[in-house]
Amino acid sequence: MGDALVTSQRLADGAAIIDVRGELDVTTVSAFRNLLVDTITRERPARVVIDMRNVTFMDSTGIGALVVGYNTAHDVGADFVVRNPSRFVHRQLHITGLTEVFGLPAGAPGASPRNRHATSG
Description:
alpha/beta, Transcription Regulator spoIIAA, 4-stranded mixed β-sheet, STAS_dom_sf, Anti-sigma factor antagonist, STAS_dom, Anti-sigma_ant
C-alpha cells in the first residue's frame, strides 16, 4: 500500500528509540517487525521507545508487530512504550484496547476534556 521508513538509535541511558514514518501496513510491516525484534534481542535495551509521530496509516499487521515487540521486550525484561502516536495511530490503539499496554493515555485522541464544573451567574 505505501512506504514506511524505520530508523533506530541507542541513547546514552540505554534506551532504544525506533522512529517509524509513513504507512505501516502489510507491505511494509515485516521490515519494521524484523528491526524491532532484532534490536530488542541483540541489544537488550532497558527500554524500547517506538516513536510514531509521523505514521500516517497503520493496519492490523502494524498493531500485531507492536504486540510482537512488546512481548519480545517483556521476554528480555525491557520496558516497551509507544511515544507521540499520530492521531490515527492513537485511535487504532484506543479501539483495540492497547493504549494503556503501550504506555499511552486511555482517552480517545483529540477528545477535549469536558467541563465538569457548573458555573453560577
